[in-house]
UniProtKB/TrEMBL annotation:
Lineage: Bacteria, Bacillati, Actinomycetota, Actinomycetes, Micrococcales
Role summary: Catalyzes two reactions in de novo purine nucleotide biosynthesis. Catalyzes the breakdown of 5-aminoimidazole- (N-succinylocarboxamide) ribotide (SAICAR or 2-[5-amino-1-(5-phospho-beta-D-ribosyl)imidazole-4-carboxamido]succinate) to 5-aminoimidazole-4-carboxamide ribotide (AICAR or 5-amino-1-(5-phospho-beta-D-ribosyl)imidazole-4-carboxamide) and fumarate, and of adenylosuccinate (ADS or N(6)-(1,2-dicarboxyethyl)-AMP) to adenosine monophosphate (AMP) and fumarate.
Protein name: Adenylosuccinate lyase
Ranges for domain Adenylosuccinate lyase PurB C-terminal: 330-450
Pathway: Purine metabolism; AMP biosynthesis via de novo pathway; AMP from IMP: step 2/2; Purine metabolism; IMP biosynthesis via de novo pathway; 5-amino-1-(5-phospho-D-ribosyl)imidazole-4-carboxamide from 5-amino-1-(5-phospho-D-ribosyl)imidazole-4-carboxylate: step 2/2
Organism whose genome encodes this protein: Microbacterium sorbitolivorans
Enzyme Commission code(s) on record: 4.3.2.2
């Protein structure tokens, strides 16, 4: 058997690459290295802008040319770094040499020793990961997440009045509306969205063990914590972590991944519910021209987008849980467990983004069957037992009824029995309650027994 030509091992880089490729712009090895170059270049510019060690600010045109090292970062730079790392056996050191090379090309060799000045690799890495994760989340993942929420909001409002039979424990229960049920997911997801949007993308920039020791040795008169804070929060737009070991503690990452995992768990619940509603016939699936549902059963339209989303959310959740658990622990001042762990951030977000893409597409391919909902409701008049026994209780309290145990009365009538409109009408007519109460109950149907479902949805979700 001949060996296959080189193939992607991960389905994210093969079968699903088109759905997640935008994440690779930031969360790939190349994206990480580009951010490292950016940090090194901007740190050098920051030092010269502050006139350290007798330097002067570089002319704007020269700064622009130097910034091309990361702004024009492409295959040539990727190959250059790969070749250099084969010699250095150190990824950040290879980046340092790339910046030195660009300085030489610009005849700025006199500034070469300001490259990677007083830094440890984790100063560069923590800022680079903060930059790449922030950009991936804000430019790619969050828009997809918000898109699903807004799609759910529109569907919720559209279906706000669509009465449906609820199923608690899988059994017929007090009716709701499909719009209210979708609205619950919108409400839950928006709470998590707010937490994700409030993420602090943190970086440290304080040297080998977080003490600015080398910085002070070079010039004890400079307020290095202030200078480094200005750099992290200014040009880089991140949040500065002033108290760390050699590494940034990764707590912000754990918080972010826990929140994204939580969002995924809610979406997983949604995918399962919609799948179930489809199986009950509450939603019909819109055929896609040319698509095959089953290799042998031509009639089938399988809810594969919801199943795909469900599986990818489980994979993403497992990875996010591992990231959140592993990254917050580092032996004493530093170990390298975070190095290989963080290289899987993109994999976790890739499966999450793939799930969002499938959910969005799946929601576009379903149509509510109001007729099926009404038929289901009409076959379950016993769910009005709750309303009847509650009205009786109110009548007893008001002195308009002498019924001793309303709950037991309705339990005997309805538990384990199928009853219809005529059965309930006859039962209500014989009750010892006031005429107004009888009139309200007689007018009630399973389809109208939805309480404030529609009003709550419109009050909470309309913008």
């Amino acid at each position: 058997m001949n060996a296959l030509p080189p193939q992607p091992l991960s389905p994210l880089d093969g079968r699903y690459s088109s759905a997640v490729s935008s994440l690779a712009e930031h969360l790939s090895e190349a994206g990480l290295n580009r951010a490292r170059v950016e940090v090194e270049v901007e740190w050098l510019i920051h030092l010269t802008n502050n006139r350290l060690f007798g330097t002067s600010p570089l002319p704007a045109a020269t700064q622009d040319k130097l910034r091309l090292a990361y702004l024009d970062f492409g295959q040539a730079e990727i190959d250059w770094l790969a070749e250099k790392e084969r010699v250095t056996r150190h990824d950040v050191k290879a980046v340092e040499y790339l910046v030195r090379d660009r300085l030489s090309q610009l005849e700025l060799d006199h500034l070469a020793e300001l490259t990677h000045f007083a830094l440890t690799s984790e100063d560069v890495n923590s800022t680079s990961y903060a930059l790449t994760v922030k950009r991936a989340v804000t430019t790619t993942w969050l828009p997809a997440f918000r898109g699903v929420i807004e799609k759910l909001r529109a569907m919720s409002l559209d279906m706000a009045d669509a009465a449906m039979l609820s199923r608690t424990h899988g059994q017929p229960a007090t009716p709701s509306t499909m719009g209210k049920e979708f609205g619950v997911f919108v409400w839950r997801l928006e709470r998590v969205l707010a937490r994700i949007e409030a993420t602090e993308y943190m970086a440290k920039f304080s040297g080998a063990t977080g003490t600015w020791s080398a910085h002070l040795a070079a010039d004890p008169k400079i307020a290095w914590p202030n200078l480094t804070r200005e750099f992290v929060e200014g040009p880089l737009g991140l949040t500065f972590n002033p108290l760390t070991t050699q590494i940034e503690s990764h707590d912000w990452q754990a918080e972010l991944y826990d929140h994204v995992k939580h969002a995924g768990a809610i979406l997983h619940n949604l995918a399962q519910d919609v799948w179930t509603y489809i199986s009950l016939g509450f939603f019909t699936q819109i055929p896609v021209a040319g698509a095959t549902g089953s290799s042998t059963m031509p009639h089938k339209i399988n809810p594969i987008k919801f199943e795909n989303a469900e599986a990818n959310l489980e994979i993403a959740g497992g990875l996010f849980a591992t990231l959140a658990q592993t990254l917050v622990t580092s032996r004493m001042q530093r170990d390298l467990t975070d190095s290989t762990t963080q290289r899987n951030i993109g994999v976790a977000f890739g499966h999450s983004l793939l799930a969002l893409t499938n959910l969005s597409g799946g929601l576009d391919q379903i149509s509510l069957s109001r007729e099926t909902l009404l038929k289901d409701l009409d076959g379950n008049w016993e769910v009005l037992a709750e309303a009847i026994q509650t009205v009786i209780r109110a009548e007893v309290v008001a002195g308009r009824s002498q019924i001793s145990d309303p709950y037991a009365l309705l339990k005997d009538l309805t538990r384990g029995h199928r009853i219809g409109a005529e059965d309930l009408a006859e039962f209500v007519a014989g009750l010892d309650i006031g005429d107004d109460a009888k009139e309200r109950l007689t007018a009630l149907t399973p389809a109208t027994y939805i309480g404030l479902a529609e009003k709550v949805v419109r009050a909470k979700l309309e913008k």
